[in-house]
Amino acid sequence: MTQSVVVQVGQCGNQVGCRFWDLALREHAHVNKVSLFTSDGGACGVGGRIQHLKARAVLVDMEEGVVNKILQGALREVFDSSQLLTDVSGSGNNWAVGHMMYGTAYREQIVDKLRKAAEHCDCLQCFFLIHSMGGGTGSGLGTRVLNLLKEEFPDVCRIVTAIYPSVEDDVITSPYNSILAMRELTEHADCVLPVENQSLVEIVNKIKHMSNDGKPGSVIKRDSTVISGQGGLSRTEKPFDAMNNIVANLLLNITSSARFEGSLNMDLNEISMNLVPFPRLHYLVPSLTPLYTLADVSIPSRRLDQMFSDAFSKDHQLIQADPKHSLYLACALIVRGNVQVSDLRRNIERLKPSLPFVSWNQEGWKTGLCSVPPVGHCHSLLALANNTCVKPTFMELRQRFTKLYRKKAHLHHYLHVDGMEQSFFSEAVNSLSSLIEEYHHLDATKGRLLPDAPRFGIAS
Amino acid sequence: MSVVNVQLGQCGNQVGHELFDILCSDAQEGKKEYSTVSRERFFHRTSHGELEARAVLVDMEPKVIRQSLSKAAKTGRWRYGEGSHFSQKQGSGNNWANGFCVHGPRLRDVVEEMVRREVERCDRLSGLMVIMSVAGGTGSGVGTYVTQCLRDTYPKSFIVNHLTWPYGTGEVIVQNYNSVLTLAHLYKLSDGILVHENDMVHRICSQLLNIKHISFCDVNSVIAQQLASILQPALTADSHGVYSRNPLGIDWQVHPCAGLERPRSLTGPSFNTSLANLLILRGKDVFSAETGGFEDPALYTSWLLPEAAFNLWKSPMPFKYEKSATLVSNSQALLRPLDNMVGKAWNMFASRAYVHQYVKFGISEEDFLDSFTSLEQVISSYSQLG
Ligand SMILES: Nc1nc2c(ncn2[C@@H]2O[C@H](COP(=O)(O)OP(=O)(O)OP(=O)(O)O)[C@@H](O)[C@H]2O)c(=O)[nH]1
Ligand SMILES: Nc1nc2c(ncn2[C@@H]2O[C@H](COP(=O)(O)OP(=O)(O)OP(=O)(O)O)[C@@H](O)[C@H]2O)c(=O)[nH]1
Ligand SMILES: [Mg+2]
Ligand SMILES: [Mg+2]
């Protein structure tokens, strides 16, 4: 059995992380209750009753508020103080403060905590890093932690869940922070799962709308895992909770193969191997279906096929993107619940004609089946698409960055920080531009029928 | 004469288990002589009288091996040896380079030692069989490495690789790379490569056996049956009425006859030119069966005499069915799938997609190019048969 460690950094990272732990524990309890599987839990490192479970996690924030709240809440038993690292004043939405100042000051302590977490694993396979791109701690210190992981554990896979700010984000410097962080993610992560707050908001609104609709037959089940934390340890729903639940479900699904049995396992180290054809192009767009289950469970087979179709539609993507009208480099389908290999094959065959794949990877599908569905669902699907549809998100971010940078707005806050130089800004934006360019080149091959590469001739 | 098997990776261990199970139950039903010969080939008796497979199990993750061991033990008829398996904690992540360059060298000593023990248990060794898939990381990468070690240690022994070829799509995106690297290496190491294509076997399950929800279990049982039918005792041309003691014992090498150049048959281009065919008949009426069709010169290349290129084995013992025939064909049948596989891999390689994943573990672009070159050579040679 392999294990993973979650490293949650900053307010967003910790809030999302805690939704994950809450739902993971609920899933564990639920599965054990119906005794499908007695598990020692894999990724969440759990065993026995919930009281005795400890999360394989490291919690980092440069202010105390968020982490303290966690310690007062229902999850307090799951963490112990040796896993936490906090300071008092936060990074003030400044990447440089997080990355340079705190990164240098806390380096030893962070490495120490990471090592301790690693020691508790008998085969550490993957680090899941969670942070926002907009604030200072998550984006700055979070990406510093990423570098430390690469230095200290070069063979352990690094998967980053990064929350991108929406256009109306209240953090004015979020474009700076995001671009500075992007460069680190592009260079040092094995995979990045980008999530946009805007998309989370839209999905949450849609679900709300559905549940208020009141049409007979469209009553939404209350206990399904994506929309609600009910049945978890924490009762009260805070702002962001509904959004964070969606991200937590992404993490639950991606780790399902490591936590439960299945007929077609997808090991975590197979994700980057199969989905990342070029080292920098490791941004995998997630989409999650179904987002809710209807109380009425008739016509299950159509529902199942609908689930597959939805995974490719615009409004199920966790970023603002339309994969169907862009170019797929590769795609993974991680399916949970009572689904057969034949269902997978049928749906891939059905959907393939409408999905443009890059010429050299027409059969770029990777699939995994885990027999245990999420709580409240009979099946679920997480699609991870390496798709050029990330390009618009990145271009828009660059535009917002340029708007600020042209006026040199707020720059001095960054340049004050020890070790921070103005060249970091230009290097970061260049890195992003060349990334965009790489996607662009691939996009340009779309629809063109490339001739097969000429093969070696053998003289007879 | 005995065969020592090495089963690697998920597929190798699942197919291997199924194979031993069929070999064991078939021998149980057979006549004394047949049964004795079969037992000696694939099993040895422990001091407690139990049947133990002459097998070594290797995987980089523990789950599949654990299942194979316990499934075998549960049959009550046979089991795997106590110290004949080796696993680690995490798989090779579908990466041939990880299996070949990292895991292979690391477990070399352990595996060689396990194989040596099995070999020493055989009164006479007729050969080694390595069972693996070509698409993942462990079976393909570690399997290739282990075959190479076996070649070094047993330079004179007959080594056969049984390979499961991947489905066209849906499981491992880099499967064509892994396959190309495996095949190019094995081509130089192995004495014979037996291939089952998952798509073909799947079709057998759906169209001939009418199975609705086809699982790997169904597929493996077809593969194991065909394989067992090749490996179980049979009467060969030179065995004079006793079961040949050497299951792998035909001369698999093809020797062109000097100066022979037959005129091509006039029936038009041959659909599938063979180098050599082995037909195995089992069950009722095997001695009166008409097999002349297999000796039609039109089936073979112009530089081989049909009688040199065709082998016929028989056994009156029914195998699974009242009558059965198994054909092992060294022919152009694999040309198209091989050409497809190499073509897709080459297209990917032209963009250098995924190559960095291999470079990371020590396989260079040069290594890829070498592999492509040798396989193009194989393709070209087979194309020129017809
Ligand atoms: N989805 C989601 N987004 C969040 C959450 N908390 C903050 N954000 C977003 O994250 C960005 C702000 O970053 P934070 O994570 O709050 O900042 P931080 O990492 O704590 O850094 P400092 O506060 O500057 O030290 C904004 O874009 C917020 O919209 C959350 O719980 N869920
Ligand atoms: N026929 C058959 N094919 C299988 C079976 N299991 C896996 N495969 C095929 O094997 C290929 C995948 O290789 P595996 O054997 O699972 O991989 P592995 O050797 O364990 O290597 P890693 O898991 O990458 O370390 C795919 O083409 C599958 O279709 C099986 O039981 N029967
Ligand atoms: Mg904060
Ligand atoms: Mg495996």
UniProtKB/TrEMBL annotation, chain A:
SMART domains: Tubulin, Tubulin_C
Keyword Secreted tagged: no
Protein name, entry field: Uncharacterized protein
GO biological process: microtubule-based process
GO molecular function, one term: GTP binding
Annotated keywords: Cytoplasm, Cytoskeleton, GTP-binding, Microtubule, Nucleotide-binding
Sequence ranges assigned to domain Tubulin/FtsZ 2-layer sandwich in this UniProt record: 264-399
InterPro entries: Epsilon_tubulin, Tub_FtsZ_C, Tubulin, Tubulin/FtsZ_2-layer-sand-dom, Tubulin/FtsZ_GTPase_sf, Tubulin_C, Tubulin_CS, Tubulin_FtsZ_GTPase
Subcellular location: Cytoplasm, Cytoskeleton
A GO cellular-component term linked to this record: microtubule
Keyword check for GTP-binding: yes
Entries under Pfam families matching the protein: Tubulin, Tubulin_C
Family of this protein: Belongs to the tubulin family.
Organism whose genome encodes this protein: Mola mola (Ocean sunfish)
Predominant place of localization: cytoplasm
The Tubulin/FtsZ GTPase domain, residue ranges: 40-262
CDD domains per UniProt: epsilon_tubulin
TrEMBL record, chain B:
Pfam family, one: Tubulin
Keywords of the record: Cell projection, Cilium biogenesis/degradation, Cytoplasm, Cytoskeleton, GTP-binding, Microtubule, Nucleotide-binding, Nucleus
Entry similarity comment: Belongs to the tubulin family.
One GO molecular-function entry: GTP binding
SMART domains with a match to the protein in the record: Tubulin (SM00864)
Functional note: Acts as a positive regulator of hedgehog signaling and regulates ciliary function.
GO cellular component: centriole; cilium; microtubule; nucleus
Any one biological process term the GO annotation gives: microtubule-based process
Name used for this protein in its record: Tubulin delta chain
Lineage: Eukaryota, Metazoa, Chordata, Craniata, Vertebrata
